[in-house]
Automatic annotation (TrEMBL):
Protein name: Trypsin-co-occurring domain-containing protein
Domain (Trypsin-co-occurring) ranges: 2-79
Pfam families according to UniProt: Trypco2
InterPro entries: Trypco2
Disordered: annotated span: 80-99
Organism: Micromonospora andamanensis
Top-rank taxon, per record: Bacteria
Amino acid sequence: MIELADFVRELRRELETAVAAAPEEGLRFELGPIEIEVSVGVEKTANAAAKARFWVLELGGEGTVARSSVQTVKLTLKPHVGSSGLPPYVSGQEAERER
């Protein structure tokens, strides 16, 4: 299991890697809305600083989350570059860029 915030942070890191690999010239792809559907488990703590934590569940994982506490969450993320509000461009040619 991984916390939902860590999942989104890793997704952002992967997308930043893809954006950095985009060539200045040639074929590039505009990165549009990203739809993610994940199964999450909720952990509630009951103390003075009560909060709920969301965990993304791995398929085939060894976790023991009760079926009744698992929910499916669909996120639609719309990426932008910095404060410009412009969509990023990506390329699948990172290996060529390193040559």
